[in-house]
Design goal:
With 476 residues, the chain is an alpha+beta fold. The protein has helices at residues 4-7, 12-15, 18-27, 127-130, 168-174, 198-206, 233-241, 292-299, 368-375, 412-420, 470-475, and strands spanning 34-37, 48-51, 82-85, 88-92, 95-98, 103-107, 112-116, 142-148, 157-163, 185-186, 217-218, 224-225, 258-263, 274-278, 301-305, 311-317, 321-322, 333-342, 345-356, 362-367, 381-392, 395-400, 403-410, 424-426, 429-435, 438-442, 447-450, 458-465.
Length: 476
């Protein structure tokens, strides 16, 4: 493996200032830049700590988690390790170089996420500064990185570089107002506001609240649908008003915030409301080899009949499921959380499962790895924005209110614990309708939580009144 760092006589990584770092990464396509100041045990052998949960890295294009059960069942075989690939490119003055084996190592038992494999198979990487036998123990090196979005492929990549401790760029990091020892920090360049802070989103929301808005949808290609009155119109309207195009790709919506429009009966007070966390389809069980219609016919209930009394509509809802300690007469499925002990101890091969009440067959299951893939991209920072939807004189309007609720710092383990405690629930709304002799399905596989219970999945919940000018001061 060749190393641009080692072969460059000028040792640019020891002389680079923050402007050079900015220019190299932004020319490579980074929209915002983050930094982690490295300590003595951050190298290719001992890995780099980046966070406590994959959701801490929701702004990165993380790939599909995978887990291989150790061959040895002895204790020394080690605790569970879930690997999550990340498309990573090292940037130097000579170009960009893929790091094909870069991945995040998630250890749920600690919990922590460590960056690994970043030199393996890379044609030219920072081996001089990151190699364990070279300068990989040097205190004060800095890892800079940013995400390059790629809507064509549906997933972007990360561009990154490392500078030595003697460099002006490394010294700049220590003086940043956003610097926090041991943490990933947003890099603030002269004239910029702090990226990732609520103040940026707050300023944008202040331009939206209190207005009666005709619902609309902004597509990624710039085209507009207005009016747009589908059930998901309030959420898409909020994103459109903030300049965010419709995006089916999991990930933060605005800066590093996920936006959630929450229906309320009044904008003057906070009321409880059930919030949809995500909508993944099952990835294991009988259902994966059948049509959605077959599943609903087998496990759902009749919800409509024709003029002759024959069923022409079926629903599959939470009423068709027995949760632990329940025994509903009409329910044909039993729900179980498989392989879960607590938020820090769960089997990566576990799942949320629906078992046939009569046969014990696995009817449908959501593997933890499947759920983690969704969770890691969505939930670390969420802003729950209230709205009213009204219809007057045939016109529908949406108004967003000032009482925003913020959820900050979550973990996948907290989600599983909330599910175990009955606060996060599986709340399906699958429907099939008979049309022209064929069953037409409508799938709605929802995992939800009440707004009043979101403290179960976040380490911090903050209630903000956008009419209160002090809300901005709290972030400064």
């Amino acid at each position: 493996m060749c190393d641009t760092h080692a072969n460059d006589d000028q040792q640019w990584y020891d002389t680079a200032d923050i402007q050079q770092v900015h220019d190299l990464l932004t020319r490579a396509g980074a929209e915002s830049i983050w930094v982690k100041r490295l300590v003595a045990n951050n190298n290719s052998k001992q890995q780099i700590f980046l966070g406590n949960d994959p959701s801490d890295l929701a702004f990165l294009p993380l790939g599909t988690p995978w887990y291989r059960t150790p061959k040895s069942q002895k204790k020394k075989a080690g605790s569970p390790l879930i690997r999550i690939p990340v498309p990573w490119r090292w940037v130097t003055p000579d170009g960009e170089f893929d790091a094909p084996n870069a991945n995040m190592c998630f250890y749920p038992q600690y919990p922590e996420v460590r960056f690994s494999g970043f030199l393996q198979g890379c044609k030219e990487g920072p081996s001089e500064l990151m190699g364990e036998s070279k300068r990989g123990h040097e205190e004060g090196r800095c890892l800079f990185f940013g995400t390059v979005k790629n809507t064509d492929e549906g997933m972007g990549h990360v561009v990154a570089l490392v500078v030595g401790a003697p460099s002006p760029a490394a010294r700049y990091v220590m003086d940043m107002p956003t610097f926090k020892k041991g943490h990933i920090c947003p890099v603030v360049f002269q004239g910029q506001r702090k990226p990732g802070e609520f103040s940026i989103l707050e300023k944008a929301l202040l331009g939206v609240i209190g207005k009666k808005i005709i619902p609309w949808r902004l597509r990624n290609d710039g085209s507009i649908d207005k009016p747009y009155i589908a059930p998901n119109a309030p959420g898409l309207t909020l994103e459109a008003e903030l300049g965010v195009g419709e995006n089916a790709i999991p990930g933060p919506d605005f800066d590093i915030w996920e936006l959630k429009a929450i229906k309320q009966s009044s904008l003057e007070r906070r009321s409880n409301h059930r919030v949809t966390l995500f909508t993944p389809q099952p990835d294991t069980g009988w259902v994966t080899g059948q049509s959605q219609a077959d599943f609903v016919l087998r496990y759902g209930h009749i919800s409509g009949t024709d003029e002759n009394g024959n069923p022409n509509e079926y629903y599959f809802t939470s009423g068709d499921i027995n949760r632990p300690s329940e025994n509903k007469d009409g329910a044909k499925l039993n729900l179980q959380l498989v392989g879960f002990t607590d938020a820090k101890n769960f089997d990566p091969n576990g799942m949320i499962a629906l078992y046939d009440k009569q046969t014990g067959e696995l009817a449908a299951g959501w593997s933890y790895l499947k759920l983690l893939e969704h969770w890691q991209r969505k939930h670390n920072r969420a802003a729950y924005v209230p709205y009213l939807r009204e219809k007057n004189d045939g016109k529908t309007t949406v108004e967003f209110g000032p009482l925003v609720t913020l959820g900050i710092s979550t973990s996948f383990g907290l989600f599983l614990q909330a599910f175990q405690d009955g606060k996060a629930i599986y709340d399906p709304g699958d429907k099939i309708t008979l049309k022209d002799g064929k069953w037409t399905p409508h799938s709605r596989s929802q995992f939800r939580i009440n707004l009043n219970d979101i403290s179960a999945i976040y380490q911090e919940v903050r209630e903000v009144n956008l009419r209160d000018s002090d809300s901005l001061k709290e972030e400064e």
